[in-house]
Amino acid sequence: MRAKVSEAERDRLLHMVVVGGGPTGIEYAGELHDFLKDDLAHWYPKMADRVRITLVEALPNVLPAFDKKLIDYTQSTFLENKITILTRTMVKQVDEKSFVVQNPDGSRSEIPCGLLVWATGIKPQPVVSRIRSQFAEAQTNARGLLVDEYLRVKGAKDVWALGDCALSGYAPLAQVASQQGKWLARRLNSLAAAAKDDADADIFALMEEKTKPFKYSSQGSLAYIGSEKAIADLPFFNRNITAGGIATFWFWKSAYLNELFSLRNSTLVLSDWVKRFLFGRDISRE
């Protein structure tokens, strides 16, 4: 015999929450909306109408790194898609069936939910904390490893850091990590080749003498916002080009395919997109 679910419990289970208004949170909320509209509504039409999506962001706006016009466009698209955005709202506690937020006026509220996805900052990995503790005098920021302009960990010897664990003054983005990794690999290889006949060469010190500091070059920002719409904020000489809509969505897809590391990966992703377009998303499980 199936247990009866109360209306209040049903509403809780069908309330889905995304914490974090950056590109990851925005894209997840957009994809979740598409899944509900394109697939769940077909299989469970009565249930789909009751599903609610809420996005929670502690800052005054979602997508703070994007142009104001794109922020407004995203928020208006979410409004059309009935996705609730709570800005200036901080998550203070997450429980099994609810979460507690601090509202803009300082008061606290407990909000029931069936699913909560965390798409905002996380604490450093244990290995990062252990490294930081060994150089506590120079490592004074608990969020990660302080590095200099050559990605050398401050206070350490022969230790470099990059990506999300490195506090380099740049945003923790995949673009930054990718450029840092390529830059550091090239510099280490060139210095090692130059010092191959000197067994006592100090590559850690030579990096400052023989190379230029790392400098991040922004390639622009893209984000999918649901309903086959995307936004783009791209550098063009000394200004930025902003765009949003269906055409930008196709540009976003092509850029995504271009960033994959192999033809095999690109083919697999493209075939998944074609299957989803023809047959819908596969929601079965073996």
Mean pLDDT score? 92
Main sheet record? 4 strands, parallel
The secondary-structure element order is HEHHEHEEEEEHEEHHEEEHH
Radius of gyration, in angstroms, nearest whole number: 23 Å
What shape does the CA trace take? globular
Contiguous uncertain segments of 5+ residues = none
Helix content: 25-40%
Structural class based on helices, strands and sheet pairing? alpha/beta
Task: State the end-to-end distance.
Answer: 24 Å
Q: What is the overall number of helices? A: 9
- What is the topology, as strand order, of the major beta sheet? 3-2-1-7
Strand elements, count: 12
β-strand percent reads 15-25%
Describe the structure.
The chain is about 40% helix and about 20% strand. The chain has 9 helices and 12 strands. The strands form 4 sheets. It has a 4-stranded parallel β-sheet with strand order 3-2-1-7. It has a 3-stranded antiparallel β-sheet with strand order 4-5-6, with no helix packed on it. Helix 6 packs across helix 7. It starts with 6 loop residues before the first helix and ends in a 7-residue tail after the last helix.
